[in-house]
Amino acid sequence: MKAIERFYEYLDFKGIKPTRFEKDNGLSNGYLGTQLKRNGNLGEDILNKIIDNCLDINPVWLLTGKQSMTKINVYTENLSPDDQNFLNESKGDGYQKQYIPLYDIQASPSTLFNDENLERVIDQITIPGLPKCDGAVYVSSDSMYPLLKSGDIIAYKKVANTIENIYWGEMYLLSLINDEGDDFVMVKWIQKSEKGDEFVKLVSENKHHQSKDLHITTIKGLALIKASIRINATY
What we know:
By secondary structure, the chain is α+β, with helices and mostly antiparallel strands. It folds into two domains: 3-69, 434 Repressor (Amino-terminal Domain); 81-229, Umud Fragment, subunit A, CATH 2.10.109.10. It contains six helices and nine strands; from the N terminus they run ααααααβββββββββ. The strands form two sheets. A seven-stranded antiparallel β-sheet has the order 3-4-9-5-6-7-8, with no helix packed on it. A hairpin with an 8-residue loop joins β7 (199-203) and β8.
């Protein structure tokens, strides 16, 4: 299977029409269909357009067919030594379940990143084989739609909010405080900013939300998204 076939598989998975992708990215009408019929190779420019605009697609999967289709499913392949040890230990005879606290993000967003949130726990989650996580929260906005929908649950691992600790292109939970002292918690892709080394670019999956460049010091809390949970039926 070639990259063009895998890309069609991705488009079908996301519910995106090829003609929509062509229009949004300046490609001639029917270009992708022609490449598919010819079983042609995608050029470097087209591959860059795909990777730049389909932020959750896994480039390794697109090019080789290896690993998972989307990035959100391959975080376990880039784990810290502590997380790797956690997974290795969990496979032994002394397996211990990991109970992840589910926090009330609406009560006080900024407390997610300090030690004052114990009273905000509303439930616990356990998922077999999940890398070590610090907590979980409900998604409450549509900025990452359709990858994440309002009501989904995301599990996260806190990291130091410095440039050195950011894996560019990954999805993060961020805590921001504006000039008026208001708290904001949001989920975004983090990319390098053209404004300089001390800035980051926050990117939404939802194309109706504009990207925003922020100085790293405006981020008061940072956590890498390790997993997401979606409930499709309540009956």
